[in-house]
Amino acid sequence: MNSARKIILSIVTLFLFFGVFSSPVFAAAQDEGKYTYLFHLYYDNGRLVADRDFEFKYDLIAEEFVPETITIGSPYRGEVISIKNVVEATFQFDIKRNDPTFTKGKISIKGPYFADASETKFYNDRGQLLLTLNVGGSSFCNDAGICNKDVGEDSNNCPADCKSEPIASPLPIKGGGLLRGILIALGVVIAAVVIWVSRAIIKKRKIGADLPPPLPPSNPPAIQ
Fold it and tell me: How far apart are CA 72 and CA 98, in angstroms?
């Protein structure tokens, strides 16, 4: 009976490993903490200014930054600058929004977020600086060489302060959707086996409990 319990425990452990770590829920959890700047700007015949109708000139949206696809004309450019005055990322945007006749109006620009960013600069298609926006109000990583976890610094958002720690994994999951589908299917099969074995053991115990106690041996008659 102890061997059967050990087998069931091993199967359950494998099921939990494959079922949880290959699930979309776990993949979504890995993506947490990714943000994108959404800048509220106004374009006026070559000039670019902050939109005065917004109290805050930018917002943070909880999504991973996706570079903009430029289809018409030369792209404008943005730069995210760190508190140490280092260019952390460069991104492009279409000021015309696929409309060559556009000369004036509100625009929203997305840019990659960094936890130690100080400002974002915007340039036209000739490389001329048009606007600089301070984004330090949304930054919490100070690049001071000390990992301050109380304010949210970790190895992902503040690598200059927090050194990454290797994560031991008995089975690194790579290869995309095909491998994930195989692992999920394997998890379903393992779950079915666990249920079948458990029911078989319970049924065996129940049958044993319902059997009447054995009768005492009868004494043969004495020979006179």
Answer: 6
